Amino acid sequence: MTVGLAVVPHAALADKVTITDIAGRTVEVEKNPEKVVLGEGRMIYSIAVLDRENPFKRVVGWKDDLINYDPDAYQKYKARFPEVEKIENLGSPYAAEYSLETVISLDTDVVFLNLGNLLKAQESGILDKLDKAGIPVVFLDFRQRPTQHTVPSLQILGRIFDERDNADEFVDYYLKNMMTVFSRVEAIKDEDKPVVFIENAAGYNPDKCCSTYGSANLGRLVDLAGGLNWGTKKFPGLRGKVNPEVIFTDDPDVILGTGANWSKAQPGTMAVLFGYEADKDAVNQRLVALAGRKGWSELKAVKSGRFHSIYHQFYNSPYHFVALQTFAKWFYPEKFADLDPEATFVELHDKFLPIDYSGVFWGSLPATQ
Question: What region holds the Fe/B12 periplasmic-binding domain (predicted)?
Answer without folding.
Answer: 35-339
